[in-house]
Amino acid sequence: MDKWQGGAHAMDVKVDVIGAMVDAQRRNSRALGRRSRVYRVAVLLLLVQILTLVAAVAESSAA
Questions:
Q1: Nearest to residue 14, comparing CAs of 5, 24, 1, 25?
Q2: Using 50, 70 and 90 to split pLDDT, how confident is the model at 62?
Q3: Using an 8 Å Cβ cutoff, are 3 and 12 in contact?
Q4: Alpha-carbon gap, residue 38 to 34, rounded angstroms
Q5: Are 12 and 1 in contact (CB under 8 A)?
Q6: Distance in angstroms (rounded) separating the CA atoms of residues 20 and 24
Q7: pLDDT one-digit tens code per residue, 7-52
Q8: Which residues lie below 8 Å from residue 4, measured CB to CB, with a gap of 6+?
Q9: In this structure, are residues 13 and 4 in contact, taking their beta carbons and an 8 Å threshold?
Q10: Cα(50)–Cα(3) distance, integer angstroms
Q11: What are phi and psi of 8, to 5 degrees?
C-alpha cells in the first residue's frame, strides 16, 4: 500500500503483492509439512502405546 500511495505503477504493486503471496504460500507449505510430520510421529507413538496396553492386558488375562 505504501508503494501505491507513493505513486508506483499498478503493475509494479501487483508484482510485489503476488511475490509476497507466493513467499507466504511457501512458508505455509513448509510449516504444514513440519506439522504433518509431527502429527504422524504422534499417531505412531499413540499406536505403539495402545498395542503395548493391549499386549499387557492380553498377557495378564492369559495368566
A1: 1
A2: confident
A3: yes
A4: 6
A5: no
A6: 6
A7: 678 788 888 889 999 999 999 999 999 999 999 999 999 999 999 9
A8: 10, 13
A9: yes
A10: 57
A11: -70, 155
Question: Which amino acid does the sequence have at 28?
Answer: N
Position 1 pLDDT exceeds 70: no
The three-state DSSP-derived secondary structure of the chain is CHHHHCCCCHHHHHHHHHHHHHHHHHHHHHHHHHHHHHHHHHHHHHHHHHHHHHHHHHHHHHC
* Cβ atoms of 15 and 5 closer than 8 Å: no
CA geometry: angle 41, 43, 45, nearest 5 deg: 70
Pull the grid cell for residue 35: 506439522
What's the grid cell of residue 10? 499498478
